[in-house]
Amino acid sequence: MHRVESYVAGGWHRPSSDGRALLDAATGKTVAELSPAGIGLAAAVEHGRTVGGPALRQLTFHQRASILQKAGKALLADEAKEQLYDLSYCTGATRADSWIDIEGGAGVLLSYAGKARRELPNSRVAVDGATEPLSRDGSFSAVHILTPRKGVEVQINAFNFPVWGMLEKLATAFIAGVPSIVKPASLTAYLTEAAVRLIIESGLLPEGSLQLACASPSELNGLLDCLGGQDSIAFTGSAATAAALRAHLAVTARATRLNVEADSLNAAVLAPAAAPGTAEFDLFTAEVVKEMTVKAGQKCTAIRRALVPAQHLDAAAEALAEALQAVAVGDPRDRSTVMGPLVGLAQRDEVAASVGALCEAAAPVVDSCDLSGVDSVAGAFMSPTLLQARDSRSSVIHTTEAFGPVSTLVPYGSIDEAVELVAAGGGSLVASVYGADRDEITDLSLGIASHHGRVLIVDQAMAPASTGHGSPLPLLVHGGPGRAGGGQEMGGMRGVYAHMQRTAVQGSPDMLTAVTGEYVDGSVTREHKGHPFKLTFDDLAVGDSLTTESRTVTRADIAAFAESTGDKFYAHVDDEAAARSPIFNGLVAHGYLVLSLAAGLFVWPDEGPVLANYGIDRLRFAKPTYPDDEIHVVLTCKRKTQLDGRGYGEVAWDTRVINQHGEVNAAYDVLTMVANAPGVNGAPEARSHA
Ligand code: NAP
Asked: Is 371 exposed, middle or buried (0-12, 13-18, 19+ CB in 10 A)?
């Protein structure tokens, strides 16, 4: 019998004592045995802090992203993936359910790898926001920087997504440069263990950046006792466990950061105008059925409350009942099965108890199904259960989470009442609203937004592309206020930054440039004899600068630009109208003409290391440019981002167009691709630049 192991301090540890049997959800047969880890978990914290953290912090964001991408691909390799699918069936998950967990989880790694390379510099420090000048003479400024905390993150996961739940937390911590200690839920720990083993055996991750503690909650306490102010706990699970963690001394006395993703009574709201017969009515019923049955409703985001206008209640109940009765409940290994069993018999008992509680205020609409062909004694099978509230305001409906295939239809009278009822859930991860009437949808969405981390608006236009109510996406915030725990995960770089310390650094622009690796306005620049566009990516340094010749902007330039582009806005072509403008003192040059003339001043024409200009950031036309103004450009290398293995990197140039009075007419960052020196970073050996 396989005994679940932990991976701590660079080695796998097989517990020596007997433990509890972990049972197949459908057959009741033993899948693995889980014993107390039996090792001092303080070692995991020490190893993470002294080995994993330093190794991660040596890497740039892009290097970490590359590793994460390879790890994601390793999990998606056929053999690896199928091994995980085989184990996933034991948890009660169908192939479709497991896809979300396994391939969806690997997808989070790939998504974060791509996003980090696009949005973070290829460096170890990120700059958050703009430079803040603190003195009139420009000698004193401040920037906000983000650096990884020098601790570990203990990631405590729920049983329902043993792979995805682990990977979505690992992704952000890893990109940030913080080592992870994963504590999987006991019930499905064998699947998390298999996924971690695949990652560790790939040899891709720096040692100590990922550890696995298959520990009982009491053993975990020993680990939490070691945590301090540089460490964090990311928890997913029930509100009761969250409350215990909130009271832990690490959190209360030592300021260990705690992020909680707890339970949630998510709502779907059918808008009044989405009457039976409309596309949105059908989309609503389809989504409620999907959310009740995917993963047998054991999803933190599942729809627990389906709010419908009172006048559509009967039609909604009828449509849902018909669809639910057609759901094939059975063995998850059978490809015709739509809904498998719950994760175990104890969970089924818990859900049944919650249904009992809900029935104080609701009556069953559907609560039976055909279970022939399965072992309904040993397997944790349950019928999809649709209830209908007798009293929409009864608190039990808004406070009881039945963590299974259970949802309650809740009628409402007005949009205000719908908003109130949704809020009675005390804060949720997600709500979805269905309708085509813009006013209704706006009132509903804005009314409930304060109580949610995510709101999905469903209408006919987005339906074919919709990722659905229940799918948290790496790009979007996952988490909700109040009962949902008040935490936030993922959300693109927001999730990465949550692992990092934001520090306001004050000093001279020169020092700030040195610390951040990015040119800060006012720091020393270097003018080259030649043009900086003739320097390869490797020869170019932040602060390399060019001051161009001047040129006069003439009336003829403005008239010709208006003629050739067709941009004949009055301020560029009509002196009298321009003179009446409250903004301009007469005819002005087009802003885009100024940009084009500036390019004419700074661009080096010959073939060379600058391969392309791929955009402009932060463009502002600070002052109007008038006929006969003399403009010149100051161009300074602001930021360099090496793109691994491509033979070139990105260079952002701080660009200012300055007039004869020394005033800045336009300021922006020109974004270019600049080739590496021959043979460096995959650049061709033989390239020669004049
Ligand atoms: P749970 O009992 O709270 O367990 C969650 C995790 O906490 C497990 O790893 C568990 O370990 C561990 N744990 C239990 N007691 C602990 C303690 N005193 N100290 C430290 N860790 C402790 O929740 P569950 O029943 O497994 O999961 C279902 C719940 O999770 C539902 O309420 C669901 O809504 C919620 N959930 C929320 C999200 C979200 O993103 N918001 C996602 C999924 C699930 P053991 O397994 O070893 O007991």
From this structure: middle
